[in-house]
Amino acid sequence: MQSLLEITDVHKTYRIGPAVVPVLTGANLSVAEGEFVAITGASGSGKSTLLHIAGALDRADTGTVSFKGQALNRMSSGQRHVMRNRSFGFVFQLYHLLPELNVLENVMLPAMVAAPTWMALVRARPRKRQALALLEEFGLVERLHHRPGQLSGGERQRVAIARALINEPAVLLADEPTGNLDPKTGQTILDVLLRLHKDKGQTIILVTHDAQIAALADRTVRLLDGRVQVASQG
Amino acid sequence: MYKLFLCIRYLTRKGIVIFPVLAVWLCVMMLIIVNSIMTGFVNRVRSAGHGLVGDVVVSSISPAGFPDYQQLQKRIDALPQVRASSPVIVALGLLNLPDYEYTKLVVVLGIDPKSQSKVTNFDHGLYWQYKAPLHAVEDIGDQGYPVRQSQLVKRAVAFLNVAEKNEKRLRDGLAMEPIPSSAWFAAIRRHWQVVRREDWQAALHKLDRAQRDLAFITGLPKNGFYKNRAALIKALVPAEPSFTPPPEAAASYASAADEPSNGCIVGVDLGLYEKNRFGQYNRPPGIRFTPAILTVSPITLRATVAQPQAGRFQIVDDSRTRVFTADSRQIYVPFKVLQKLTFMQQQDLLSGGVQPARCSELQIRVKNDASAAAVNQARDAIARVVSAFVHQHPEAQIAGLQTQTWVQEQAQYIKAVDNERNMILFLLGLVSLVVVVVIFLIFYMLVRDKTRDIGIIKAIGGGEWGVASIFLLYGLLISAAGAAPGVLCGVLFVLHDNWIHDHILWRWFGISIWNRKVYIFSHIPDQVTASAVVIMVISAMAAGLLGALLPAIKAARQDPVEALRYE
Ligand SMILES: Nc1ncnc2c1ncn2[C@@H]1O[C@H](COP(=O)(O)OP(=O)(O)OP(=O)(O)O)[C@@H](O)[C@H]1O
Ligand SMILES: [Mg+2]
After folding, report:
1. How many angstroms separate the CA atoms of B535 and A22, rounded?
2. pLDDT value of residue B262
3. N or C: which end of chain B has fewer CB within 10 A?
4. For A87-118, how does the pLDDT look when each residue is reduced to its tens digit (9 = 90+)?
5. How far, in Å, CA of B130 to CA of B137, rounded?
6. If you measure CA to CA, which chain A residue comes closest to B567?
7. Neighbours of B518 (CB within 10 A)
């Protein structure tokens, strides 16, 4: 299988004053197109850090991250913004929606960032149609003009997923998307992710510390001592 | 695009932005009001100063004056730039009014009223001799623009209509007891019907005057067209000013022997009159034609003081130039009379020769005097004539002749007001820096508050510049949101400042800031210059940007991973 995202020998160390906290010490991970990979590990093992590095949100100290053969770590910050906008979609544990925008606006925001100013008006309609389609799919059509504060946790997370998908990213990066939800609601979110993976072949990297959730993925890797250990093959 | 979109959302959904918007609003309003009123004030001061001495003044440094001025005047009059000129004698004197037990140190000006009126606005300021309806022209700008007779009629009719509509109420009101000032709330209850006693009197006075004005204006040539205020006033003034007492003056004297042969005109602010809140002078009934004794000290060619000379006069009029320093100490007497009193007339010398007549200065009006360039150009031409004259007249050289434009001549006076305005604007500008600080503080808080949002925006691909520009744009929008109502309120306030002052401050609260007792102008300036408004708006925008700059940089530098950890 051809690899879409290739993380090779990535190191990341945090320094707090004199203390040195090595988080990643030569992590390797390869994700193929259409694959659903789960990353597990103890709290503080560096799962989020790895995910951020994979999605061009953070930089590794050393090592390479290549996406479709391009080295993300050698890109300018401008190019990395574009990558984050077009090729990666992030979903966070705490939803991270903008409280001043309503549901529809939150979902459309990455598409607005993508469009240059002069294109904004031309592209507005198809963009909106796409956002509406996603929200319909996630059962949120009734809540279009509600603000995040008026939604439940599960609804917020579905909005966040819709936002991550609006620009049709190559990779969806989810950092404990169910971590803040009760098991039942969490299951609905997982169903959404599984459906995306099965029906549309969406590449997903999911961070979780729940072995049961990890079992849903094609493949599970485990972070231990700053390195990726292959835990199981789905 | 998303930047503007986010800004608008932040602007409409964040309550705290009301504070910087209000700060910008108030500052823009304040600066527009202060700038307009001060600029209007400066312009009036300048125009009063301009009317005082003509456009160019040739004066001698020596207090004894300079000789052969008629010759110099002839040469200057021959210049194509010159419209008219008038010789003036300046002396120090003591004015004594025996009937009023009044003595005051005065500056005595010897003038020829006819030629003087061609050079300065002397005739416009005379109370008894000036027949023009000041009301109709008072609010015509000093800048000067075409005025038609029909416009004047319209203005006068409008004024008269208002006055007549209120006449009955005013007369009723006058019969009422004045309302005690402590009960101002009672005044509010009775609303507009309630005015103070002096307001009624003043309004009735205005009504009376408006009727006279209208009669006068309708008598003007139908198609009259006046290039500027001065031209209009010229057209409105039919009588030539004169020092000669009219026949009825003789009634004031017991016998013909008592009658002084000469008239004099006193400055209106010499302290003979009381001035009320509306700037109207309360002239004692007998003041006109009252005898006056003027004592002057002639100064010899060797700059010694000769025996004081006294002359008997009779007050025939008073003069208001609107330049306080002039009105509070000048008195005017006929040129020839003062020439004799100061020994400046032509004299036969014992040695056989003739000592030529002298005067202190020549005041000159040039053509196209609204243009500073034309005035300066004329000054240079006159200065050349003067220096040629001085070469042929060594005595004039000793007198030390200088040629100055009115601006140079009154530099101190004009500059003082100009500086005052600049100083006030500068101080208020400093105060307005508060806006920058307010915006900075609010934005600093906002950026901290929005740390997580900044992380999100970066996570979905908004770059450093994108994040920074959100906040910069936000600052601009806040300034615009404050500047727009600020300009509106400021302009409305300035356009109606006289009304606000008289109808709200004074009627309701008994506050009179623009006290006509003190100010030489009866109206608060109420014109706004477009350029000033544009500058204010641009400055407000700049303040918004400046205030938002540091927080925007801070936001742009925010590490998204850190920001997303923030809860
Ligand atoms: N800015 C930072 N400064 C210092 N240490 C940091 C910083 N960010 C992360 N770390 C440390 O790096 C380690 C890995 O953090 P990370 O958030 O990747 O863990 P995680 O596996 O996602 O944990 P969890 O399951 O609790 O989310 C932790 O020990 C954390 O304390
Ligand atoms: Mg984590």
Report:
1. 57
2. 87
3. C
4. 999 999 999 999 989 999 999 999 888 877 66
5. 13
6. A94
7. 11
Q: How far is B551 from chain A (nearest CA, A)?
A: 19
Return the domain boundaries, chain B. 2-46+413-564, 62-121+245-399, 129-236
Q: Which residues contact A143 (CB under 8 A, 6 or more apart)?
A: A103, A135, A150, A151, A155
* Alpha-carbon radius of gyration of chain A: 18
Q: What is the pLDDT of residue B540?
A: 87
Mean pLDDT of the region A134-155: 92
| Structure tokens belonging to residue B334 | 């006929």
Is the CB of residue A16 below 6 angstroms from any atom belonging to ligand 1? yes
Interface contact A96-B564, CB threshold 8 A? yes
List helix spans (H) across B192-334.
197-218, 229-236, 324-327
Residues of A numbered 6-65 whose beta carbons fall under 8 angstroms of chain B's beta carbons: which are they? Answer: 52, 57-58
Query: H or E stretch including A133?
Result: helix A120-137
The pLDDT of residue B207: 64
Gap between the Cα atoms of B291 and B285, Å rounded:
14
Residue A199, both tokens: 């029906």
Q: Are B93 and B222 in contact (CB under 8 A)?
A: no
Tell how far CA A38 is from the center of its chain: 12
Structure tokens at B385: 């004539």
Ranges under pLDDT 70 in chain B: 130-239, 252-260, 276-280, 502-503, 506-512, 514-523, 566-567
Which pLDDT belongs to residue A91?
Answer: 95
A172 contacts: CB under 8 Å, gap ≥ 6: A88, A89, A91, A161, A164, A165, A193, A196, A202, A203, A204, A205
The count of other CB atoms within 10 Å of the CB of residue A12 is 22
Could you tell me where the beta strands, DSSP code E, fall in B69-113? 82-97, 102-111
Residue A223 main-chain phi, psi, to 5 deg: -95, 125
Strand segments, DSSP code E, in chain A are 3-16, 19-32, 36-41, 62-67, 70-71, 88-91, 171-175, 203-207, 219-224, 227-233
Looking at CA atoms only, how far is residue B561 from chain A in angstroms? 7
